[in-house]
Amino acid sequence: MSIDEQVLNYPIPAAAPLDPPAEWAELRGECPVAHVRLPSGDQATLLTRYDDVKQVLADPRLTRQLSAPDAARLSADGGGVFNSEVSQIIPDSGADHLRWRRLVGRWFTAKRMAALRPQMARIADELIDAMVERGAPGDLRAGLGFPLPVYVICDMLGVPAEDRDRFSYWSDTLLNLTRYSREEIEVAQTEFFAYMSGHVSAKRDQPGDDLLSELIAAGGPDEGGLSDLQILVTGMALLVAGHETTANMIGKMVSMLLADRGRWEALLADPALVRTAVEETLRLDANSGFGLPRYLPVETEVGGTVLPKGTTVICSMAAANRDESAFEAAAEMDLTRSPNPHLSFGSGAHSCLGQSLARTELQVVLEVLLRRLPGLELAVPVAELERVEGLAVGGLRTVPVRW
Protein backbone atom coordinates (compact mmCIF):
# COMPACT_ATOMS: atom_id res chain seq x y z
CA MET A 1 0.00 0.00 0.00
CA SER A 2 1.44 3.41 -0.98
CA ILE A 3 1.84 6.11 1.66
CA ASP A 4 -1.05 8.17 0.26
CA GLU A 5 -3.45 5.27 0.92
CA GLN A 6 -2.39 4.66 4.53
CA VAL A 7 -3.65 6.12 7.77
CA LEU A 8 -0.39 6.58 9.70
CA ASN A 9 -0.21 6.54 13.48
CA TYR A 10 0.88 9.97 14.72
CA PRO A 11 3.34 11.07 16.05
CA ILE A 12 5.44 9.07 13.57
CA PRO A 13 8.37 7.38 15.37
CA ALA A 14 11.94 8.04 14.25
CA ALA A 15 14.69 5.42 14.02
CA ALA A 16 17.32 7.61 15.70
CA PRO A 17 17.07 10.30 18.41
CA LEU A 18 18.21 13.28 16.30
CA ASP A 19 16.96 12.10 12.89
CA PRO A 20 13.59 12.64 11.20
CA PRO A 21 11.21 9.77 10.40
CA ALA A 22 11.83 8.55 6.84
CA GLU A 23 8.10 9.05 6.18
CA TRP A 24 8.42 12.86 6.27
CA ALA A 25 10.23 13.03 2.92
CA GLU A 26 7.79 10.50 1.41
CA LEU A 27 4.80 12.50 2.65
CA ARG A 28 6.16 15.80 1.33
CA GLY A 29 6.77 14.19 -2.05
CA GLU A 30 3.71 11.98 -2.47
CA CYS A 31 1.10 12.87 0.14
CA PRO A 32 1.50 16.34 1.60
CA VAL A 33 -2.08 16.31 2.92
CA ALA A 34 -2.19 12.98 4.76
CA HIS A 35 -4.59 11.11 7.04
CA VAL A 36 -3.24 10.23 10.48
CA ARG A 37 -4.54 8.57 13.64
CA LEU A 38 -3.79 10.43 16.87
CA PRO A 39 -2.98 8.82 20.26
CA SER A 40 -6.68 9.30 21.16
CA GLY A 41 -7.75 7.16 18.19
CA ASP A 42 -9.29 10.21 16.46
CA GLN A 43 -8.27 11.03 12.91
CA ALA A 44 -6.68 14.26 11.71
CA THR A 45 -4.98 15.68 8.62
CA LEU A 46 -1.18 16.05 8.64
CA LEU A 47 0.64 18.74 6.66
CA THR A 48 4.36 18.37 5.92
CA ARG A 49 5.16 20.88 3.14
CA TYR A 50 6.52 24.33 3.93
CA ASP A 51 3.99 26.38 1.95
CA ASP A 52 1.00 24.41 3.28
CA VAL A 53 2.10 24.60 6.92
CA LYS A 54 2.82 28.32 6.62
CA GLN A 55 -0.57 28.96 4.97
CA VAL A 56 -2.53 27.20 7.73
CA LEU A 57 -0.54 28.70 10.61
CA ALA A 58 -0.95 32.20 9.17
CA ASP A 59 -4.72 31.90 8.51
CA PRO A 60 -6.48 33.93 11.25
CA ARG A 61 -9.76 32.06 10.73
CA LEU A 62 -8.30 28.79 11.98
CA THR A 63 -8.17 28.20 15.73
CA ARG A 64 -5.70 26.45 18.04
CA GLN A 65 -8.58 25.67 20.43
CA LEU A 66 -9.82 22.14 19.86
CA SER A 67 -13.02 22.74 21.84
CA ALA A 68 -15.57 22.16 19.06
CA PRO A 69 -17.60 18.93 19.45
CA ASP A 70 -16.15 17.54 16.20
CA ALA A 71 -12.53 18.57 16.88
CA ALA A 72 -10.04 15.73 17.30
CA ARG A 73 -8.82 14.88 20.78
CA LEU A 74 -5.06 14.61 20.91
CA SER A 75 -4.89 12.17 23.82
CA ALA A 76 -7.30 9.46 24.93
CA ASP A 77 -7.62 11.08 28.34
CA GLY A 78 -8.62 14.46 26.93
CA GLY A 79 -7.49 17.63 28.66
CA GLY A 80 -4.06 18.81 27.66
CA VAL A 81 -2.86 22.09 26.38
CA PHE A 82 -5.13 22.25 23.30
CA ASN A 83 -8.26 20.33 24.35
CA SER A 84 -8.67 21.61 27.91
CA GLU A 85 -11.11 24.26 29.13
CA VAL A 86 -8.09 26.27 30.28
CA SER A 87 -6.99 26.64 26.63
CA GLN A 88 -10.19 28.57 25.85
CA ILE A 89 -9.58 31.30 28.44
CA ILE A 90 -6.81 33.11 26.55
CA PRO A 91 -8.48 34.63 23.44
CA ASP A 92 -7.06 33.32 20.17
CA SER A 93 -8.59 35.69 17.60
CA GLY A 94 -9.86 39.20 16.97
CA ALA A 95 -9.41 42.33 19.06
CA ASP A 96 -9.26 40.38 22.35
CA HIS A 97 -6.31 38.32 21.09
CA LEU A 98 -4.49 41.44 19.89
CA ARG A 99 -5.02 43.09 23.28
CA TRP A 100 -3.66 40.02 25.08
CA ARG A 101 -0.59 39.88 22.83
CA ARG A 102 0.04 43.61 23.25
CA LEU A 103 -0.18 43.46 27.06
CA VAL A 104 1.97 40.34 27.43
CA GLY A 105 4.27 41.03 24.49
CA ARG A 106 5.77 44.11 26.20
CA TRP A 107 7.77 41.69 28.33
CA PHE A 108 9.20 39.83 25.33
CA THR A 109 10.58 42.61 23.15
CA ALA A 110 14.05 42.34 21.62
CA LYS A 111 15.09 45.38 23.69
CA ARG A 112 14.03 43.73 26.95
CA MET A 113 15.76 40.49 25.96
CA ALA A 114 19.00 42.37 25.25
CA ALA A 115 18.80 43.83 28.77
CA LEU A 116 18.37 40.30 30.19
CA ARG A 117 21.44 38.86 28.44
CA PRO A 118 24.00 39.63 31.18
CA GLN A 119 21.76 38.05 33.82
CA MET A 120 21.25 34.95 31.65
CA ALA A 121 25.01 34.63 31.11
CA ARG A 122 25.59 34.93 34.87
CA ILE A 123 23.06 32.14 35.56
CA ALA A 124 24.66 29.94 32.87
CA ASP A 125 28.13 30.52 34.33
CA GLU A 126 26.94 29.57 37.83
CA LEU A 127 25.19 26.42 36.58
CA ILE A 128 28.34 25.38 34.66
CA ASP A 129 30.43 26.05 37.80
CA ALA A 130 28.19 23.60 39.67
CA MET A 131 28.44 21.01 36.86
CA VAL A 132 32.24 21.25 36.82
CA GLU A 133 32.36 20.94 40.60
CA ARG A 134 30.28 17.74 40.46
CA GLY A 135 32.66 16.42 37.81
CA ALA A 136 32.34 14.72 34.44
CA PRO A 137 30.40 13.04 33.05
CA GLY A 138 27.38 15.19 33.72
CA ASP A 139 23.84 15.59 32.39
CA LEU A 140 23.69 18.84 30.45
CA ARG A 141 19.88 18.80 30.47
CA ALA A 142 19.56 18.52 34.25
CA GLY A 143 22.57 20.73 35.00
CA LEU A 144 21.99 23.59 32.54
CA GLY A 145 19.23 23.04 29.97
CA PHE A 146 16.37 22.71 32.44
CA PRO A 147 17.25 25.15 35.25
CA LEU A 148 18.33 28.16 33.15
CA PRO A 149 14.99 28.85 31.37
CA VAL A 150 13.14 28.09 34.62
CA TYR A 151 15.14 30.70 36.55
CA VAL A 152 14.53 33.26 33.80
CA ILE A 153 10.75 32.74 33.40
CA CYS A 154 10.24 32.50 37.18
CA ASP A 155 12.03 35.84 37.56
CA MET A 156 9.84 37.41 34.85
CA LEU A 157 6.68 36.13 36.57
CA GLY A 158 7.88 36.81 40.11
CA VAL A 159 7.48 33.10 40.98
CA PRO A 160 9.93 31.30 43.33
CA ALA A 161 12.31 29.20 41.23
CA GLU A 162 12.71 26.64 44.05
CA ASP A 163 9.25 25.32 43.07
CA ARG A 164 10.65 24.35 39.66
CA ASP A 165 10.24 20.57 40.05
CA ARG A 166 6.53 21.05 40.72
CA PHE A 167 6.21 23.31 37.70
CA SER A 168 7.94 20.71 35.58
CA TYR A 169 5.52 17.97 36.62
CA TRP A 170 2.47 20.19 36.17
CA SER A 171 3.75 21.24 32.74
CA ASP A 172 4.27 17.64 31.66
CA THR A 173 0.68 16.72 32.56
CA LEU A 174 -0.61 19.66 30.48
CA LEU A 175 1.52 18.46 27.56
CA ASN A 176 0.38 14.85 27.94
CA LEU A 177 -0.24 12.56 24.98
CA THR A 178 0.13 9.07 26.45
CA ARG A 179 2.17 9.36 29.67
CA TYR A 180 -0.43 10.24 32.32
CA SER A 181 -3.91 9.06 33.29
CA ARG A 182 -6.96 11.35 33.34
CA GLU A 183 -6.91 11.28 37.13
CA GLU A 184 -3.23 12.30 37.32
CA ILE A 185 -3.85 15.14 34.87
CA GLU A 186 -6.89 16.47 36.74
CA VAL A 187 -5.13 16.40 40.13
CA ALA A 188 -2.04 18.15 38.71
CA GLN A 189 -4.04 20.84 36.90
CA THR A 190 -6.12 21.52 40.04
CA GLU A 191 -2.88 21.91 42.04
CA PHE A 192 -1.33 24.16 39.37
CA PHE A 193 -4.48 26.31 39.19
CA ALA A 194 -4.59 26.69 42.98
CA TYR A 195 -0.87 27.53 43.13
CA MET A 196 -1.10 30.22 40.47
CA SER A 197 -4.33 31.59 41.97
CA GLY A 198 -2.55 32.09 45.29
CA HIS A 199 0.41 33.65 43.52
CA VAL A 200 -1.76 36.17 41.62
CA SER A 201 -3.58 37.09 44.88
CA ALA A 202 -0.24 37.72 46.57
CA LYS A 203 0.84 39.94 43.66
CA ARG A 204 -2.39 41.90 43.95
CA ASP A 205 -1.60 42.59 47.62
CA GLN A 206 2.12 43.18 47.13
CA PRO A 207 3.00 44.06 43.51
CA GLY A 208 6.55 43.59 42.26
CA ASP A 209 8.51 44.41 39.12
CA ASP A 210 7.20 41.46 37.15
CA LEU A 211 4.84 40.58 34.32
CA LEU A 212 1.90 39.43 36.48
CA SER A 213 2.03 42.56 38.65
CA GLU A 214 1.97 44.67 35.48
CA LEU A 215 -1.03 42.77 34.08
CA ILE A 216 -2.89 43.29 37.38
CA ALA A 217 -2.02 47.02 37.36
CA ALA A 218 -3.45 47.37 33.81
CA GLY A 219 -6.93 46.85 35.27
CA GLY A 220 -9.77 44.63 34.10
CA PRO A 221 -11.33 44.20 30.64
CA ASP A 222 -13.32 47.46 30.99
CA GLU A 223 -10.03 49.33 31.40
CA GLY A 224 -8.30 47.62 28.50
CA GLY A 225 -6.73 44.89 30.63
CA LEU A 226 -7.41 41.21 31.31
CA SER A 227 -9.83 39.43 33.61
CA ASP A 228 -8.53 37.80 36.81
CA LEU A 229 -8.97 34.37 35.22
CA GLN A 230 -7.10 35.43 32.08
CA ILE A 231 -4.18 36.74 34.17
CA LEU A 232 -4.06 33.48 36.13
CA VAL A 233 -4.11 31.29 33.00
CA THR A 234 -1.56 33.55 31.28
CA GLY A 235 0.77 32.90 34.23
CA MET A 236 0.25 29.15 33.87
CA ALA A 237 0.73 29.23 30.10
CA LEU A 238 3.92 31.31 30.26
CA LEU A 239 5.39 29.12 32.98
CA VAL A 240 4.80 26.01 30.83
CA ALA A 241 5.85 27.54 27.50
CA GLY A 242 8.65 29.60 29.02
CA HIS A 243 10.68 26.68 30.28
CA GLU A 244 9.62 23.37 28.73
CA THR A 245 10.41 23.92 25.06
CA THR A 246 13.62 25.90 25.62
CA ALA A 247 14.90 23.45 28.24
CA ASN A 248 14.46 20.65 25.71
CA MET A 249 15.92 22.69 22.85
CA ILE A 250 19.13 23.48 24.76
CA GLY A 251 19.82 19.74 25.11
CA LYS A 252 18.94 19.02 21.48
CA MET A 253 20.93 21.98 20.13
CA VAL A 254 24.11 20.98 21.98
CA SER A 255 23.66 17.32 20.97
CA MET A 256 23.21 18.25 17.30
CA LEU A 257 26.34 20.43 17.37
CA LEU A 258 28.43 17.78 19.16
CA ALA A 259 27.17 14.93 16.96
CA ASP A 260 29.65 16.12 14.32
CA ARG A 261 32.82 17.49 15.96
CA GLY A 262 33.46 19.71 12.94
CA ARG A 263 30.42 21.81 13.84
CA TRP A 264 31.65 22.49 17.38
CA GLU A 265 35.16 23.27 16.08
CA ALA A 266 33.70 25.73 13.54
CA LEU A 267 31.90 27.59 16.34
CA LEU A 268 35.05 27.64 18.50
CA ALA A 269 36.96 29.12 15.55
CA ASP A 270 34.26 31.74 14.87
CA PRO A 271 31.88 32.45 17.78
CA ALA A 272 30.15 35.06 15.59
CA LEU A 273 28.36 32.08 14.01
CA VAL A 274 26.35 31.50 17.19
CA ARG A 275 23.25 33.36 15.97
CA THR A 276 22.99 31.56 12.64
CA ALA A 277 23.91 28.24 14.31
CA VAL A 278 21.01 28.60 16.76
CA GLU A 279 18.59 29.26 13.90
CA GLU A 280 19.91 26.27 11.95
CA THR A 281 19.50 23.90 14.91
CA LEU A 282 15.95 25.20 15.37
CA ARG A 283 15.29 24.50 11.69
CA LEU A 284 16.84 21.03 11.69
CA ASP A 285 15.33 19.88 14.99
CA ALA A 286 13.68 16.59 14.04
CA ASN A 287 12.50 15.91 17.59
CA SER A 288 10.37 19.00 18.21
CA GLY A 289 7.27 17.14 19.31
CA PHE A 290 3.71 17.05 18.09
CA GLY A 291 3.52 20.13 15.89
CA LEU A 292 0.67 22.66 16.03
CA PRO A 293 -2.95 21.57 15.66
CA ARG A 294 -5.54 23.79 14.01
CA TYR A 295 -9.32 23.35 13.83
CA LEU A 296 -11.04 24.41 10.60
CA PRO A 297 -14.34 26.21 11.30
CA VAL A 298 -14.72 26.73 7.54
CA GLU A 299 -13.97 24.68 4.44
CA THR A 300 -10.36 25.42 3.44
CA GLU A 301 -8.22 24.49 0.43
CA VAL A 302 -4.68 23.43 1.31
CA GLY A 303 -2.12 22.03 -1.10
CA GLY A 304 -4.74 21.50 -3.80
CA THR A 305 -6.98 19.51 -1.42
CA VAL A 306 -10.29 20.86 -0.13
CA LEU A 307 -10.56 20.14 3.60
CA PRO A 308 -14.12 20.15 4.95
CA LYS A 309 -15.27 22.31 7.83
CA GLY A 310 -14.62 20.48 11.12
CA THR A 311 -11.25 19.06 10.07
CA THR A 312 -8.44 19.03 12.63
CA VAL A 313 -5.11 19.72 10.94
CA ILE A 314 -1.69 18.96 12.42
CA CYS A 315 1.04 21.26 11.11
CA SER A 316 4.44 19.57 11.28
CA MET A 317 6.80 22.54 11.31
CA ALA A 318 9.75 20.15 11.72
CA ALA A 319 8.85 18.33 8.49
CA ALA A 320 8.21 21.63 6.70
CA ASN A 321 11.60 22.96 7.81
CA ARG A 322 13.24 20.21 5.74
CA ASP A 323 11.32 20.98 2.55
CA GLU A 324 13.77 21.20 -0.38
CA SER A 325 11.48 23.70 -2.13
CA ALA A 326 12.02 26.17 0.74
CA PHE A 327 15.63 25.46 1.78
CA GLU A 328 18.63 24.65 -0.38
CA ALA A 329 20.29 21.40 0.79
CA ALA A 330 17.48 21.20 3.35
CA ALA A 331 18.77 18.00 5.00
CA GLU A 332 22.22 19.49 5.62
CA MET A 333 23.25 21.58 8.63
CA ASP A 334 24.72 24.88 7.42
CA LEU A 335 25.88 26.97 10.37
CA THR A 336 26.08 30.06 8.13
CA ARG A 337 22.57 29.71 6.61
CA SER A 338 21.01 33.15 6.20
CA PRO A 339 18.25 34.04 5.68
CA ASN A 340 16.64 31.12 7.50
CA PRO A 341 12.85 31.55 7.45
CA HIS A 342 12.11 28.35 9.41
CA LEU A 343 8.69 27.77 10.94
CA SER A 344 9.84 26.51 14.35
CA PHE A 345 8.07 29.40 16.08
CA GLY A 346 4.99 29.23 13.87
CA SER A 347 3.84 31.99 11.54
CA GLY A 348 1.42 34.88 11.46
CA ALA A 349 -0.77 36.18 14.30
CA HIS A 350 -0.15 33.11 16.45
CA SER A 351 3.62 32.90 16.06
CA CYS A 352 5.35 32.17 19.35
CA LEU A 353 5.18 35.18 21.65
CA GLY A 354 8.34 34.10 23.48
CA GLN A 355 10.55 33.49 20.46
CA SER A 356 12.91 36.38 21.29
CA LEU A 357 13.29 34.95 24.81
CA ALA A 358 14.01 31.44 23.48
CA ARG A 359 16.50 32.74 20.89
CA THR A 360 18.32 34.82 23.50
CA GLU A 361 18.55 31.92 25.95
CA LEU A 362 19.85 29.55 23.27
CA GLN A 363 22.44 32.05 22.06
CA VAL A 364 23.64 32.84 25.59
CA VAL A 365 23.92 29.15 26.55
CA LEU A 366 25.94 28.40 23.43
CA GLU A 367 28.23 31.43 23.92
CA VAL A 368 28.93 30.50 27.55
CA LEU A 369 29.49 26.80 26.78
CA LEU A 370 31.97 27.62 23.99
CA ARG A 371 33.85 29.95 26.33
CA ARG A 372 33.79 27.73 29.43
CA LEU A 373 33.87 24.16 28.08
CA PRO A 374 35.59 24.20 24.66
CA GLY A 375 36.41 20.49 25.00
CA LEU A 376 32.76 19.54 25.52
CA GLU A 377 31.69 16.23 23.94
CA LEU A 378 28.88 13.72 24.22
CA ALA A 379 29.65 11.00 26.78
CA VAL A 380 27.59 8.40 24.87
CA PRO A 381 27.20 7.63 21.16
CA VAL A 382 24.47 9.72 19.51
CA ALA A 383 22.41 6.59 18.87
CA GLU A 384 22.19 5.98 22.64
CA LEU A 385 20.51 9.31 23.41
CA GLU A 386 16.92 8.69 24.52
CA ARG A 387 13.94 10.71 23.37
CA VAL A 388 11.29 12.10 25.70
CA GLU A 389 8.16 10.02 25.00
CA GLY A 390 4.46 10.54 25.57
CA LEU A 391 4.40 14.36 25.62
CA ALA A 392 3.43 16.98 23.03
CA VAL A 393 6.97 18.42 23.21
CA GLY A 394 10.03 16.63 21.91
CA GLY A 395 13.30 16.39 23.76
CA LEU A 396 16.03 14.15 25.13
CA ARG A 397 15.65 12.52 28.55
CA THR A 398 19.29 13.17 29.39
CA VAL A 399 22.28 14.69 27.57
CA PRO A 400 25.38 12.95 29.02
CA VAL A 401 28.50 15.05 28.39
CA ARG A 402 32.14 15.26 29.45
CA TRP A 403 34.68 18.07 29.03
Short structural summary:
With 403 residues, this protein is α+β, with helices and mostly antiparallel strands.
Mass-distribution shape:
globular
CATH level 1 name = Mainly Alpha
Task: Profile the largest sheet.
Answer: 5 strands, mixed
Q: How confident overall, as mean pLDDT? A: 93
The CATH homologous superfamily name equals Cytochrome P450
Low-confidence stretches: none
Q: Find the structural class using helix and strand composition.
A: alpha+beta
The quaternary organization reads as single chain
* Ends apart, CA distance between termini: 49 Å
Name given to the CATH architecture: Orthogonal Bundle
> Domains counted in the coordinates: how many?
1
**Topology pattern, helix = H, strand = E:** EHEEHHHHEHHHHHHHHEEEEHHEE
| Number of helical segments with 4 or more residues | 15
DSSP strand content: 5-15%
Give the strand tally: 10
Q: Which strand order do you get reading across the main beta sheet?
A: 1-2-3-8-5
Could you estimate the helical fraction of the residues in percent? 40-55%
Question: Rg, please?
Answer: 21 Å
CATH third-tier fold name = Cytochrome p450
